[in-house]
Amino acid sequence: MVGRRLIILMLLLLWPLSSVGQxxxxxxxxxxxxxxxxxxxxxxxxxxxxxxxxxYRHSHLQRGYFLDQNPPELVTELYRDEQPRVVKHAGxxxxxxxxxxxxxxxxxxxxxxxxxxxxxxxxxxxxxSPTLKVKPRPDAGDWHWLPAxxxxxxxxxxxxxxxxxRGMQLERSITIQAQGLTGAQLPELPPxxxxxxxxxDLGSRVEQKITEGIMVGQRHMRxxxxxxxxxxxxxxxxxxxxxxxxxxxxxxARLPLFNLTVVESLASSVxxxxxxxxxxxxxxxxxxxxxxxxxxxxxxxxLLATVLSLLVYGVLIWHYRLLPRLKRQLQLATQKRRFQxxxxxxxxxxxxxxxxxWGELRWGNQAPVxxxxxxxxxxxxxxxxxxxxLDRANYSNNHEWxxxxxxxxxxxxxxxxxxxxAAQSRHQLPPxxx
Length: 434
Description:
Blueprint: H1 2-14, E1 33-39, E2 49-57, E3 65-66, E4 74-81, E5 85-89, E6 92-105, E7 109-112, E8 117-120, E9 123-126, E10 131-134, E11 147-148, E12 150-157, E13 164-165, E14 170-179, E15 197-211, E16 214-227, E17 231-235, E18 238-244, E19 249-255, E20 258-263, H2 281-287, H3 289-294, H4 298-344, H5 348-363, H6 375-378, H7 381-395, H8 403-427
Parallel strand pairs: 11-18, 13-20
Antiparallel strand pairs: 1-2, 2-6, 3-8, 4-6, 5-6, 7-10, 8-9, 12-14, 14-16, 15-16, 17-20, 18-19
């Protein structure tokens, strides 16, 4: 039984009337046949080709299918597989089954595509084998080969509502979109070198879709621009060369350069403390010393002068040593209060700025430059979670942020940090005796 079926299948394969060339109708109108079309027939290497195969049959047959075609020299994407419909062709009425592919040839020269085949339980139809005449790239220049019907380069920079200050994280998104290319064919552009900025590459992702028979590929790239100093800076533009397959010429997609002005952060803008000139008290006391010695009750006056001198020295010591510490504590308390107010108002931008300002007052140049950087200072899983939410809220338009939760978790650490550091300092003192 198996041998008989095998013989029947071989006879069908070798049946001379089963292979019908393109646009050659069979003499018998009841016989099915396959046609194909290539658009364009002479593409550039790696450029998109629309390949359509059509089966025409006179009457409805049992359900069948086209055999898949995946030649190694072509990247193949199935675009359309239509249901049977009735059409008129060359004055005759047929039932049409149509399938369409998008092909991307991977080398230049002639590429033979396997003959299209339609198979069912008792029908096996083949067409002619198409040939693609693939053209090489026009030159071997040092640029990405992008044979596209159209290509667009766009960018988006998320800037704060106010000024850009030192340490802010600015997210930049760059998108390449091309008609006639897959997302994987689009290059990943390197991050720019900007003096005075730290640039972090946040990676990229690719997308693609088929619209009206045309492959549309996209590559989305994300970068983080962090200014490390104040001043005026220029972010360089981007040029991307590509090949226009419609007009057979090279084109240039361009992002223009733009300027950024960076100001000092909130904590750095606090006015520096000014130390007043010392009061010349000792000289005046020394000049009156002889008069005191000769006056009645000079001993009491000398004692009074000594006490006054000690009081003056105490005031000076308090002014030069203790007062700056007190001012610093007041500034820390002010930033903590501003952070609480920002949390109560659900204002993530102000909350992050005041937290960074608090850190700069506390640690100076060693302070974190972003809200997320405080997770290493506070060493608390709950605080780390709140800081991540705060960081996402500042750089994502769709992220919900709860200022109440942030205030409950972060503010207690701002209060306890001074005592914690003092306790650590006491344990680090060297022992008095060995």
